[in-house]
Amino acid sequence: MINFSPKQKEVWRNTILQHHRWNISYGAVRSGKTYLDYFKIPYRIRNARTDGLILLLGNTKGTLERNILDPLRQIWTPLLVGHIGSNNKVQLFGRECYALGADKINQVSKLQGAGLAYAYGDEVTTWSEDVFQMLKSRLDKPGSCFDGTCNPDHPQHWFKKFLDSNADIYSMSFTIDDNPFLDPVFIENLKREYQGTVYYDRFILGRWVAAQGIIYRIFADNPEAFIVDKAPPVAFCTIGLDFGGSKSGHAIQCTGIEPGFHGVVTLDEDYSKKEMDPDQLNAWVVAFVKKQLKAGYRVIEIFADSAEQVLIRGARNALAKARVGVPVRNAIKGPVVDRIRFYMVLMGTGRYKVMRHCVHTIEAFSTALWDDKKLEDTRLDDGTTNIDTLDAQEYSTEKYQRQILDMIILGGDASGNTKAP
Q1: What is the pLDDT of residue 310?
Q2: Which terminus of the chain, N or C, has less C-beta within 10 A?
Q3: Could you tell me if residue 416 is inside a domain?
């Protein structure tokens, strides 16, 4: 028997038993707002008009697959839930549907001319606004409707303005405590992870609030809780490298990944605002990498700022000439807010440590600020705080963010073992 929470039952009554053009559930993570959709989506598809298309949208096709289609497949089996093909089509409950990423403006062109009988949207606040505006005009069949979910963002976000409009919208706010099926220990851990940050208001309480003040409040309030004099055992190390410009410095970080992706520790750093020619910069990088290898660290990769391809090639050639066999790769450089949330979770769960001598890293995490002049969540980057060290630190771990977060969520080893890559 399937059990729904009181809040989920209320949403079902007001979106399925009653008709609204727009049906939005927003609020806390793991609050049950999306779980209900795993039963709404098949109902909508089976009852949708056949003279209109069915469209599923997510931040990217990858997140749509992970957040929506994978859980649907687990509940309803692969016989009823297919995979997204190269043509952006997917078979769902006997209907051919379309599945697209909505994070970029060029996705709009894929919607043009399509009349929709039903549309579903995951992580709506991460979309391009242009995609959403085009979607409005495509829901043109009698009885067409949209179901969607999102986490709150800042109060001036375009989607919040839409929710406050006089359109035919049913919306429901969820808090973490609206999900009675979660383990209370997990809820307390999640609250602790986001404690003292803007994400506590958004991801725990489900509120639309602006990002202001110190970013890593839990670190800034008590740096000693994260500082260690002796490094914990690490399975392998990575290095992050951020090249400086006219107003910024060069930063390089050596980061240890604990066995089983259990945690992250900043082992060593260097930071320089000196003007360096390419040869001096290469010598600086080689010396730092050699220092880590001499210390016995197993450095497997260097992730460098991908905007500086000439400097990356120079560092790569210099390391090869010095017979240092550590590959230099482009940093992923995903959204800064994702990197910020990652370190907030690490800090909130006690899984981030930094060696005491890494004074630039300690200062950078203690003083990083939100830019209160920007509506979007933006880290202040005006030269008053050390963003370069934070960038290098984030580059060093970005490749493994997903594995580490999965380990935290699952409470175990995301890789299934303790072997390094």
Answers
A1: 93
A2: N
A3: no
